[in-house]
Specification:
The complex is a heterodimer.
Chain A lengths: L34 E2 L7 E9 L8 E3 L4 H4 L3 E3 L5 E2 L3 E2 L3 E5 L3 E2 L8 E7 L2 E3 L2 E4 L4 E6 L5 E9 L2 E10 L5 E5 L7 E5 L7 E6 L5 E3 L5 E7 L2 E9 L3 E9 L4 E8 L1
Chain B lengths: L2 H20 L8 H16 L1 H4 L38 H10 L1 E3 L2 E4 L7 H15 L19 H10 L3 H4 L37 H10 L15 H13 L11
Antiparallel strand pairs in B: 1-2
Helix pairs in contact in B: 2-5, 4-5, 6-9, 8-9
Classes of the chains: A mainly beta, B mainly alpha.
């Protein structure tokens, strides 16, 4: 990790008199207090693009020592930043913290799925409400093991580790974290494989798409913290205030 | 509940609270608290040297041991008989406290069988409290080994399930993935050399059956309980035991 500068900068590029406080390492706790009271009328919307403007990030490379017919030859890597076009950064989490009530989670998120395809986990990043079932499906005709850790600050706790030796095998696990929000999934049989699941009781968050876009609608008016997090780059955040019907279009830049 | 019974219950409750305060406590006391209190006292006396006064595995003697003492705060317990991913059963923790742990590098943890069973149960409560879970897992008992165990069939399963990647084609722990393995703390860890016949989770066939079914938490060893039948698990146990002097005849006895 020494090649990676974890310091990041969150920069507002939209106009408007928005108060912004740049913070250091965050100490937010899991928003257990969130209540789904319904979609607010005349809610605000926060959307934009997550970008990266730092130098090149060296992703660890791992030699493929077995299963080359499925995993390929040479070296594999997983953690490189996924950048497109104008430095848009995919697979980040943009989240509005401090929301105590509002819309319910969409039923699309009642369960989550994670696939093992050609020796990679797909998707790399996803969000899921607490207690939802994670379905894990192996599509490769080789053994993978699914080793999940709860990550909180500097601590890492193994929460489950089971094998899937056959193509088509499917298992599910309810994701209940003790504290924190982040689950890191690895495969000990293929050590480049990795994926992340972000567990949040509030649905006011978004995984940035290939073009870096995020879109978080139906936000009750108020003052909140806007956070951008990427597993390699860390988290930066700032405060903002929205009124009824506001439509904020912001670019967030991690460096 | 009649009035008479209730007042008796209250009186009994007061007696417990007074007893707890007499021991210097202020927390509301019930029988579980008292067991936990006794367990913490025993823990401080017998366990904290290695596992740390806070249960973090960093006691003053920790650095001198051939194996790293468990960090209970992570809540990962290696040797379990509950379903894959479930909390350890009370008996799992009690087994370790009672029997200790012996591995290929020697004794990892001594037996505390000199404590009474009640005292060992209390120590287990202290460990559960450090790990931060409220309810023990439900233990699963294996079915009896099937008739006609065949070491060749077990060996085929051992290869097919790619146990060889870590444990080696001969079970000597020198598989192609063995070199770069780490535990959940990021410390180096080696796959077991199965030819030595020293199994940290217990030497009995049923112990090995559970290691395969539930995996070893916090290490790269995954659970196979979702992937293979209990009978096939016995076939692998039979093969694993055939690799060492423990002998095939152990299974089924």
């Amino acid at each position: 990790m020494s090649a990676i500068d974890r310091r990041t900068v969150l920069k507002w590029t939209s106009g408007g008199a928005l108060g912004l406080a740049l913070g250091g390492a965050p100490s937010f706790v899991h928003a257990n207090g969130y209540q789904a009271t319904g979609v607010p009328k005349n809610g605000a919307r926060v959307r934009g693009t997550l970008k990266y403007s730092g130098g090149p990030v060296d992703a660890p490379r791992f030699p493929v020592v077995k299963d080359t017919n499925i995993c390929g030859d040479g070296f594999r890597s997983n953690d490189a930043l996924k950048l497109t076009g104008d430095s848009a950064l995919a697979d980040g989490i943009v989240q509005i913290k401090g929301v105590t009530h509002g819309k319910p989670w969409s039923s699309d998120f009642a369960e989550a799925k994670m696939f093992q395809v050609e020796c990679s986990f797909q998707p790399y990043m996803q969000v899921i409400p607490p207690g939802a079932n994670l379905y894990i499906i192996n599509l490769d005709p080789i053994l993978h093991n699914v080793h999940a850790y709860e990550v909180h600050g500097n601590t890492k706790r193994s929460i489950f580790n089971f094998s899937q030796p056959r193509a088509g095998q499917e298992n599910w696990v309810p994701l209940n974290l003790r504290r924190g929000n982040q689950v890191m999934v690895t495969c000990n049989a293929h050590n480049w494989m990795g994926a992340w699941i972000y567990v949040s009781s509030s649905p006011y968050l978004s995984v940035t798409k290939k073009d870096g876009r995020f879109d978080i609608p139906d936000l009750p008016p108020g003052t909140y913290t806007l956070s951008a997090w990427h597993p390699i780059l860390g988290e930066r955040y700032g405060e903002f205030t929205v009124g009824p019907g506001d439509d904020l279009n912001v670019d967030l830049i991690l460096t | 509940m009649s009035r008479m019974t209730r007042s008796r219950a209250i009186a009994a409750g007061l007696a417990v609270v007074f007893a707890a305060q007499g021991m210097g406590g202020t927390a509301a006391a019930n029988s579980t608290d008292l067991v936990l209190r006794e367990g913490m006292a025993l823990y401080s006396q017998h366990c904290a040297q290695c596992h740390g006064i806070e249960g973090d595995g960093r006691g003053p003697a920790a650095g001198e041991l051939p194996y790293k003492p468990r960090n209970f705060l992570n809540g990962s317990f290696k040797f379990r008989t509950a379903a894959p991913g479930a909390r350890p059963a009370r008996r799992d923790l009690l087994n370790v406290v009672s029997n200790g742990i012996v591995g290929a590098k020697g004794e990892a943890m001594p037996s505390f069988s000199f404590l009474s069973r009640r005292e060992r149960v209390a120590v287990v409560e202290a460990v559960r409290n450090f790990a931060g879970f409220a309810v023990y897992g439900k233990p699963v008992d294996p079915p009896p080994p099937p008739a006609g165990l065949d070491a060749a069939k077990g060996a085929a399963l051992f290869r097919q399930l790619q146990c060889t990647d870590c444990h080696g084609a001969n079970g000597d722990g020198k598989g192609p993935l063995a070199a770069d393995m780490t535990d959940e703390d990021g410390d180096p860890i080696q796959p077991a050399d199965l030819t030595l016949g020293k199994f940290k989770g217990g030497q009995q066939p049923v112990d090995i059956w559970h290691r395969i079914r539930t995996g070893i938490a916090g290490t790269p060893m995954p659970a196979f309980g979702n992937s293979i039948s209990p009978e096939d698990t016995w076939q692998i146990v039979n093969y694993v035991l055939s690799l060492s002097d423990n002998g095939v005849e152990n299974v089924g006895n």
